[in-house]
Design a protein that fits this description.
Layout (H helix, E strand, L loop, with lengths): L1 E5 L3 H12 L5 E6 L2 H10 L4 E4 L8 H11 L3 E6 L6 H10 L3 E4 L7 H22 L21 E7 L3 H11 L6 E7 L6 H12 L3 E4 L9 E5 L4 E4 L5 E4 L11 H11 L3 E6 L8 H9 L3 E5 L9 H7 L5 E3 L1 H12 L4
Helix pairs in contact: 2-3, 3-4, 4-6, 6-7, 6-11, 8-9, 9-10
Length: 340
């Protein structure tokens, strides 16, 4: 891949450059010292991936990400020191269109930290390849038989990727699940940041957010978030579990896998919502839910940070409704009720 670097600290930019040039499969497209320079260089020579610093003078990483996604969209990985200490900025950047976040490698050169960065880059390379593939390939969920929950009558499943944090905050800021309804969110995000994401989302919507552990049961009247790099499935008595399979699927956790589980095993009312994101994850699962008689909604192009996943769903006619993100909450309130 052609990889660009945006960092105002020369020694860090050089450390990142060395990590890239020491690989056989990547090359450095350019290095920018600030956000304004990055906007200009990206317009002239759009890379496959940008390693974006978070805290910079002039334009910070959030605003630079937003403007690049608006003017010259490409994959962006936030690379910053101590991301756990800047969670608000991290999730604003993810909401603006960044794909993922990782810590800056140790400056002295550390094999483990270099490897962690290259692993992130390799994963994003798979996502880019999947996004550019001509065919849309379906994903079948592992069979997890179960019986209907006595407490939860309605299940709202929401899948999101690039730009998802902001979209989720908008939807759930307008609507909260009623006492007989559970919301389950599958957001593409690394396990290292899922707990922080849950806290951030709760602070944005002023409502409790529960992280889903292995074996967690659907909780009525709650919002629950997948927290593993493995895929979420619905099991016996509607307890939730994680599975590694499919191993080679680049989207982790996969929206498709969970949507397929609902289509196959949830007999009560369900709604599938597919929000902004790079790639095609969730499109086939949403189609399976629609064929199973469930309400299906996809975010529209105008309000999507990246119109990949919703576009794939629209192409399959998987979405019964295609809506601006600002109106999805109102539809959920009308169809499922509202917390009192």
């Amino acid at each position: 891949m052609k990889i660009a670097i945006v960092n105002d600290v020369a020694v860090i930019a050089e450390a990142l450059r060395r990590v890239i040039v020491n690989t056989a499969e990547h090359q450095v497209a350019w290095v920018a010292r600030n956000g304004s320079e990055a906007l200009k260089l990206c317009a002239e020579n759009r890379p496959d991936l940008i390693l974006m610093d978070l805290i910079m003078p002039d334009l910070d990483g959030v605003e630079t990400t937003r403007l690049i996604m608006e003017r010259s969209p490409c994959a962006i990985l936030i690379v910053t020191a101590s991301p756990e200490d800047n969670t608000n900025l991290v999730f604003r950047a993810l909401g603006a269109g960044a794909l993922d976040v990782t810590a800056t490698p140790v400056l002295a050169g550390n094999a483990a930290s270099d490897s962690a960065l290259l692993t992130k880059i390799r994963t994003i390379g798979k996502l880019i390849a999947a996004d550019s593939a001509a065919a849309v390939n379906g994903t079948t969920a592992p069979v997890q038989h179960g019986t209907a929950s006595a407490e939860v009558d309605t299940l709202v499943a929401i899948g999101a990727s690039t730009g998802g944090p902001n979209a989720l905050a908008k939807v759930l800021g307008e609507w909260k699940p009623a006492a007989n309804c559970t919301v389950v969110i599958v957001q593409h995000i690394d396990r290292a940041f899922t707990d922080s994401f849950g806290k951030w989302l709760s602070s944005q919507i002023d409502f409790p957010v529960d992280m889903i552990d292995e074996g967690s049961r659907l909780l009525p009247g709650r919002i629950m978030v997948a927290k593993s790099n493995d895929h979420l499935v619905l099991g016996n008595k509607h307890r939730m579990h994680y599975t590694e399979k499919p191993l080679n699927y680049p989207y982790r956790p996969s929206v498709d896998v969970f949507f397929h589980c609902i289509a196959q095993h949830w007999q009560k009312t369900a709604v599938g919502v597919l929000l902004t994101g790079m790639g095609r994850d969730g499109a086939h699962g949403l189609l399976a839910m629609r064929r199973a008689g469930k309400l299906t909604i996809a975010q529209d192009q105008a309000t999507s940070a990246v119109y990949g996943m919703p576009r794939a769903a629209a192409a399959l006619d998987a979405a019964e409704m295609i809506l601006p993100v600002e109106t999805i909450g109102a539809i959920l309130k009308k169809r499922t009720g509202q917390a009192s």
